[in-house]
Amino acid sequence: MARHRKCATPVPLDRARRRLAAGLTAASALAATFLATAVTPAAPPAPDRAPSAAGSDLAQASGK
C-alpha cells in the first residue's frame, strides 16, 4: 500500500495562514459581540410573558 503524505508547504505560508485564521476568528467574535449588544431584536416579546418593569434585585429588596 502506498503512503499518502502531506504536501510540503513553505513554513512562512503556513504561519501566515494560521495568523489569518486567528485574525478572522477574533474579528468575527468581536463583530458578534457588538451585534448582540447593539442591535435590538426584530421580534416582539412573547405574549405569555409580562413586561419586565422591575428587575429581580428590586423584587428581592422589597420582599415580594
Terminal-residue CA separation: 75 Å
Q: Shape, please?
A: elongated
Strand content: under 5%
- Provide the helix percentage: 40-55%
Largest sheet: none
Q: Give start-end ranges of low-pLDDT stretches.
A: none
Helix-strand makeup class: mainly alpha
Cα-atom radius of gyration: 25 Å
Instruction: List how many beta strands DSSP finds.
Output: 0
Mean pLDDT: 78
Give the ordered list of helices and strands: HH
Number of helices: 2
Which tags fit this structure?
64 residues, 0% strand, 55% helix, single chain, mainly alpha
Structural write-up:
By secondary structure, the protein is mainly alpha-helical. Helix content is 55%, strand content 0%. 0% of the residues are buried. The mean pLDDT is 78. Residues 41-64 are annotated as: Disordered. Keywords: Signal. Residues 1-31 form the signal peptide.
Strand and helix layout:
Layout: H1 11-38, H2 56-62
What's the quick description here?
It contains two helices and no strands.
